[in-house]
Amino acid sequence: MSVMVPSRTPALITPGQQALDSALHQLGQAAEELGLDDGLRTMLATPRRSLTVSVPVRREDGSLDVVQGFRVQHNVSRGPAKGGIRFHPSTDIHEVTALAMWMTWKCALVGIPYGGAKGGVSVDPTVLSTRELERLTRRYVNEILPLIGPEKDIPAPDVGTDEQTMAWIMDTYSVNAGYSVPGVVTGKPMTLGGSLGRTGATSRGVQIATLTALGRSPEGVTVAVQGFGKVGALAAQYLADAGARVVAVSDVSGAVHNSSGLDVADLRAWVTETGSVASYRHADALAHDELLELDVDVLVPAALEGAITASNAPRVRARLIVEGANGPTTPEADEILAAQGTTIVPDILANAGGVIVSYLEWVQNMQAYSWSASEVEVRLRDLMEGAFSEVKSVAAARGLTLRQAAHVIGVGRVAEAHQMRGLYP
Ligand code: NAD
Question: How many percent of the chain have pLDDT more than 90?
């Protein structure tokens, strides 16, 4: 038996099911390459624990909303589960499961002692007041409390959540424990035990991955970034700082383009002021889809899953795609792009900087100690560059794409941990 990708009626597939199908497809390919037996394949395809909760939220007008929340621990064979929490209206159990599975392979690939998890709430955080968001976060955390803890499962920010969300999680957990437990979440504010370098860590990792993949000076290299959020905005900034020309960026409200290069710092200030890249003064408006199809050297998808599909992949002209987002390229698009000669630095490698520095934050919390920004940066760079070089060697030795090689390494390490531990009872 191979890893089963369930058969679904195409018109009824949700983005979450599409993401899970992609993750299962990638696992299936790696399991085949590694020659894993059927039992182990099934185990790796199945999350260890999945929790769905109802989260009642009192709105400012006194009414009561009830939203669904999830926490999935895909695998804990190499250490505590680790993974972000997403607040987004289309989040469902399938998406959270896929994201948890990718976390498992990512942590194994970069060699940090964690399993993979993810959490999510099906809600649009942009329509909630700060007080509503706080109530929602605290109630959701209370519902998933039995699963999380510094030795069990450590959340972090993802789409729609930030340092403030992590502070509320840390406080809710600590109030229940009766003492402060900073190690229960990462991506916290510095004042609560956050780590220097965590805010920009995923983006720094994207920059390192891009420069390593280019293998030449980034001076004048043209870049388009889809998604100008926590990951995309700083990835654009760090790439511009390194000498690249960021010519287009987008967010959920629009896309902008300037062939002479955008002033990323000025654009970030514009977004802080107005909430969106749309109508930025020093650039032309662009349709969302056009950004993905620009004739650029590097495309950084840094928004959501399923951005590059079989329908737009033939029109993608970037020579290099560096996946800041998780799961932005479907398996069908992957094949089309490979045939076109496009190099893809896969999500589980390209965006691993976030979980690497989350790990460093957790280690500091567990030791009640803090490291300098340069210590954090050196460790991040070492782990990113080491993982990239391993992926390149495995790809070359086995004739695989970088994504296939990354999965072979990640899945292989988790499979080995299972085999060494044996099965209880
Ligand atoms: P975020 O909420 O801060 O930003 C997401 C951005 O994407 C926003 O600017 C939003 O407007 C934009 N967006 C949404 N739909 C879009 C669309 N159709 N077209 C263009 N832009 C769109 O989230 P984030 O933390 O930056 O996460 C982005 C991606 O990176 C996600 O896939 C996430 O899982 C992944 N990731 C995040 C981290 C992290 O540390 N935050 C780490 C690893 C991976």
Answer: 96
Span from the CA of 232 to the centroid of ligand 1 (angstroms): 7
Q: Nearest to residue 362, comparing CAs of 133, 170, 100?
A: 170
Question: What is the model's pLDDT at position 190?
Answer: 97
Residue 60 φ/ψ, nearest 5 degrees: -60, -30
Site to probe by mutation for ligand 1, drawn from 202, 270, 276, 312 as the one with most ligand atoms within 8 Å of Cβ, is 202
C-alpha gyration radius of the chain: 20
Omega of the bond leading into 425 within 30 degrees of 0 (cis):
yes
CA dist 417 → 44, 53, 95, 303, 357 (Å) = 12, 31, 25, 32, 23
Closest CA to 170 of 151, 152, 187, 158: 187
Within 149-293, residue ranges assigned H as helices are 163-177, 201-214, 230-241, 264-274, 288-292
Catalytic residue, chosen from 82, 106, 118, 230, is 118
Other Cβ atoms closer than 10 A to 34: 16
Please state the length of the chain: 425
Cα 169 to Cα 85: distance, rounded to the nearest angstrom: 10
pLDDT of 7 = 72
Residue 368 has pLDDT above 70, yes or no: yes
The strands making up 245-251's β-sheet, listed across from edge to edge, are: 284-286, 254-257, 245-251, 222-226, 298-301, 320-322, 343-345
Tell me if residue 244 falls in helix, strand or coil: coil
- pLDDT tens, residue by residue, 296-340: 999 999 999 999 999 999 999 999 999 999 999 999 999 999 999
* 22-66: pLDDT as tens digits: 999 999 999 999 999 999 999 999 999 999 999 999 999 999 999
Tell me what percent of the chain is helix, strand and coil, each rounded to the nearest 5: 50, 20, 35
Residue 4 has pLDDT above 90, yes or no: no
Which position has the token pair 């289309």?
Answer: 90
- Enter the tokens of residue 116: 């993979």
